[in-house]
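#struct-help
A.M.: can someone run this one for me? Single chain, 242 residues.
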Amino acid sequence: MKVLWMAVRRPWGYWREVTDQMFDILKLCWIPMAISCTAFGLGAPGLQGGNLFNLFGIPERLGSFFVMASIREFAPWVNAMVVAGVVGTAITADLGARRIREELDAMEVLGVDPIRTLVLPRIIALFLMTGLLDLVAALFGVLGGYIAAVPILGANPAAFLNSLFANLSTTDVWGSVVKTALFGLIIGVVCCYKGMNASGGPIGVGRAVNQAVVIAFAAIWIFNMVFTTILLGLNPEIQVYR
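D.P.: on it. Structure tokens below:
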């Protein structure tokens, strides 16, 4: 709440740091996320789901399946796992190291608020960049499904894309982006909190990193279930496949 109040009450002075953090997130995450989403899309929903559709002679219908499999579910999930594992751990370790070296105490003595200076830009950057990266994750997830359907199972490429876009709706896209942005908010809050409250020397920093990742993963899984349930309940039409 303190971070939210700072962001709303005085929304200036930290955006340069936010853009720097967003660039770092993009630089560190987009390659592993692209590889993970493509491989996951090719393997689990692509080949296994595609073989099921192929039994009925309709491998092209895998495109409609990927609206649910990639855009709604595993692209946001894989994106959040990569961001938490790469950026979340780095943030916790950085803030934790500053805490045990008493840098944060020194900043407070000098009249510099470490929460506004260090925590707020990181949380905002994670919130914005994780949501934007979801679009990239969804694209590479669908690419994995396309590879499974067209070159491997012999589906017609135009029919695959037609099935995909016939079922894709604006609700699917904004729901996926909003959900993933909130994943980033969860990662930022958990990792910054654990880093700011690290204690016990270097061992304590390592313990804080482990705890931050586990808590962030668990919170993301729980929130994903709640968000998806609410989204499908409020928009039952997106569950009808065309």
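A.M.: thanks! The mean pLDDT is 89.
D.P.: also worth noting: Helices lie at 2-9, 15-55, 62-100, 103-109, 114-152, 157-167, 170-196, 201-234.
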